[in-house]
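[Meeting: bench + compute handoff]

Bench side (C.D.) handed over the final construct sequence. Compute side (W.E.) agreed to return the predicted structure before the next meeting so the bench team could plan truncations. Sequence as handed over:
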Amino acid sequence: MFTSLFKKQPLVDENTQEWLFDTFSWAIEHFNVQVFLKETQLILPTNEFYSGRVASVNEMANNIFNHTLAYSSMQNWPIRLVNPHEAITTEMPVLTVRNAIRGENALVEVLNDRYKTIDFTFNPSQINQPQDLIASYAQQLATILVMQQKILPPGGKEFLPQAIDVLACVMGFGVIFSNTAYQFKGGCGSCYNPRANRQAALSENDNVYALALFCVLKSKKLKDVKQHLKGHLRKAFGQAYSELSSLSQTSESPLFLTIKK
């Protein structure tokens, strides 16, 4: 009785774990497994990853966008960033994809004449919260990939928002997504700007677990990741990392077997 009383509970329940495993497999399989294995990095919110000097809001938005696009391995896509006042809501252009959907060998072109590019814009309120801006860009890029492939994730259409966040984690943005999953509102209304926060589909624990799964699959060291997480997330991340490290040694999950090949 006392053993079970003090036994540490898993960070996520069994059903959530199974869905995350299946959705990781879905994301890796359908959005270029070779890019995941050979090119994908763990993107950190540091000057090393987001370098460059900027002198205006537009320059900062463009700098962050260009880095995020490259880290997403979508640099060959016909995507451009426009100012918020220039943004026009349009339908998704019809695209043709050759060679690969992501990576240096990807050839992506717009087929219809009405649109030449996929236009992105940014939320000016997020300029002072760069991690939210990065996460919003990555979320939009992951959404475009899913729309292009037209392959539903495990659980079907109902789970698309959550699967898009998982795909963004598979693309390397798990630290930033974990840090922006929840925003503390503080004790002063004037200190909290809900317009600056990204819309998270996964809970904090689910994000942290997805990040830990990415790190185990990509052989990232625990200590190199924890320091970049918000303080209250580090214990949960350490627990998830330990659980998944042990599981990866014995699991027959296709996800772990694919990475071991």
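W.E. noted at the follow-up: The chain has ten helices and four strands. C.D. will use this when planning the next construct.
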